[in-house]
Amino acid sequence: MKSNELVLKTQNIEKYFYDPIQFKVLDNVSFEVYKGEFLTLVGKSGSGKSTLLYCLSTMDTKFNGDLEILGEKINGKKIDDLAEIRNQHIGFVFQFHYLLPEFSCLKNVMLPALKLGKYTYEEVEEKAYQKLDILGLRDQALKPASKLSGGQQQRVSIARAMINNPQIIMCDEPTGNLDSKNTNIVFDIFKQLAHDFNQTIIAVTHDNDFAANSDRTIELADGRVIN
Amino acid sequence: MRFPVNYDIAITHVVTRKKQTLVAALGVTIGVAIYLFMNSLSSGFSSYSRNNIFQTNAHIKIYKNDEISSPLTQHKNSVSVILNPQITTLSKTLINPNTLLDKIKKEPYITNAIAQVDFSAFYNRGNTQIKGSGSGVNMLQYAAMFNTPKYMVAGSVQDLQGNLNGIIIGKGISEKLNLGLGDNITVSSSYNVTKVLRIVGIFNMGNSISDDSKCYVNISTAQQFLKQGNSYVTTIYANTPDPDNTQPYVKKLQNITNYTVEDWKTTNADVISGDNTRKTMMNAISFSILVVAAFGIYNILSATISQKINDIAILKATGFKSKDVIRIFVAEALIMGLIGTTVGLCIGAILIKIMSGVYIGGPVGYFPIHFEAPIFVRSFVLGLIITLCAGYFPAKKAASVDPVEIFRR
């Protein structure tokens, strides 16, 4: 459930695009995210919600303002240190699944954990099976990722995001490519992750039902938080 | 066996794209095989021509060089007056040669030294005359230095020892004059001394210059041809432990004697420069082929990276660092390179084996090509270094992929 433990905090984030002309995408964005919270970012296209998410993700470092993740200040850190933070603390789910086609589903789920290197191969394998189990994909584990249906692939990518038990899972239009049945499945999984496993979900979406059912919604317009 | 995750990914990429891997490896295979083969060939030819040189040349040669008359006035400010400059050397002999020879033999770095008397010889039979050169030597010492017995096709070097009427001639002379072992041959010198000598041996060195013109007689016979006494010696030959590094020994010997001290490299500068030219050309050509092969790896890896740009983005998003990405793709290049190099060495070895059995005739005989471990090692290392470079640049490009740009497309 939502607690008072802070996991992410932004202060006065602003960001410009310079090509083709200078344009302010994010303007004075400040908010806080708490542990176990299911947060959605909504807004019209071009409102800057995806841009904001990538700034929060530590992949985009070219912005002004302060970003704190798990009490640690992110600004000015080296790219490799940021990669380590993402590896340990942040899981990603995108509109497209981005699974590696040569690998089995299981291996795809395992890769971030193998990179983390905290557990042995066998332990990682066991954990990956558990995650796939939660998502109802245990029997698909050894199939190549390219042989699954779209909904299944998206669930595998959620399993991959969960493998290192990150504090935060960030999603960019996670249901954008899915039919309503699969959208509901994915939504329920997120809800379960936030409320049962106490993980924080930050999802960008333009699906109003999806947003309406989340714990909290932040609405952006023209780079500003309006709600 | 389990590899670290980076190499696991690299191996999976390489294995799932067998065709590209094999094409890239094939390029390296051909490059390495040709590099190995051409360098072995060039080295074989070098050692062949060097053996040829050492058939009749020692490492160091000491002789009296011709002196040209110098200007009559040598004062700084005066005009040099010289009338009809000409060679002022009256005799080609080394003065007191035996003392000099003993002195040279006592030097610690000299492994062997002999005295020799050279003269111009004319071999006659009936109206036929062949021009050539003769060497008066102590045949047993000479044979020990130049390994002459190896080239004897009839008779033996021992038969000349102490036999003042004996002569050893080249195979070409024997054939042209139709004279065999035990026959008599009329030899005259430029000093108009004519002798009838008995052929006690025939050699075949495999190079026409020696075989068609050279003969060996005893030192005193040669001195008689030159109408000289028994202290007349034209050349002293000396061997050193290391034929590739004769310069310091030349300097030391020059301190002992005033006569010209010359190493075999100076005497055979033309042969050596030809040799170096061939070596450089073969090296350049084979190296270019290897570089072209590396471009194959570069291309295939670049294509792989463009195709896998999504995979690279997600790997970076999930925590793979730039150096991990570089490792993945360099490892792929190295796997291709390793396969290619190994197969290339095998094919190169087979080529060498086949060529070493090919008879090209002439004095060379079989192709002068051998298995030489250092060239194998060099080909292997070079093959890997080149694939490493070919892999590094695309890998670096892959590492600089900005995941945000990919995800936002």
Record the SSE blueprint.
The complex is a heterodimer of chains A (227) and B (409).
Chain A: E1 6-17, E2 23-34, E3 38-43, H1 49-56, E4 64-69, E5 72-73, H2 79-89, E6 90-93, H3 105-116, H4 121-134, H5 150-162, E7 168-172, H6 180-196, E8 200-204, H7 208-212, E9 216-221, E10 224-225
Parallel strand pairs in A: 3-8, 3-9, 6-7, 7-8
Antiparallel strand pairs in A: 1-2, 1-4, 4-5, 9-10
Chain B: H1 5-16, H2 18-56, E1 60-63, H3 97-106, E2 112-125, E3 128-137, H4 139-146, E4 152-155, E5 166-170, H5 171-177, E6 184-189, E7 194-203, H6 208-211, E8 214-217, H7 219-225, E9 235-239, H8 247-256, E10 260-263, H9 264-267, H10 269-307, H11 309-317, H12 322-356, E11 359-361, E12 365-366, H13 373-399, H14 403-407
Parallel strand pairs in B: 3-8, 5-7
Antiparallel strand pairs in B: 1-9, 1-10, 2-3, 2-6, 2-9, 4-7, 5-8, 6-7, 11-12
How would you sum up this structure, described in words?
- The complex is a heterodimer of chains A (227) and B (409).
- Chain A has 227 residues and is α/β, with parallel strands linked by helices.
- Chain A has a single domain (6-225), classed as 3-Layer(aba) Sandwich (Rossmann fold).
- In chain A, 35% of the residues lie in helices and 26% in strands.
- Chain A is built from seven helices and ten strands.
- In chain A, strands 6-7-8-3-9-10 form a six-stranded mixed sheet.
- In chain A, helix 3 (105-116) crosses helix 4, helix 3 (105-116) runs parallel beside helix 5 and helix 4 (121-134) crosses helix 5.
- The mean pLDDT of chain A is 89.
- With 409 residues, chain B is an alpha+beta fold.
- Chain B is elongated, with a radius of gyration of 32 Å.
- Chain B contains 14 helices and twelve strands.
- The mean pLDDT of chain B is 89.
- The A-B interface holds A 50, 54, 57, 59-60, 79-80, 83-84, 86-88, 92, 94, 96, 98-100, 102-103, 111-112, 114-117, 121, 160, 172 and B 2, 5, 8-9, 12-13, 16, 310-311, 313-324, 402-404, 407-408.
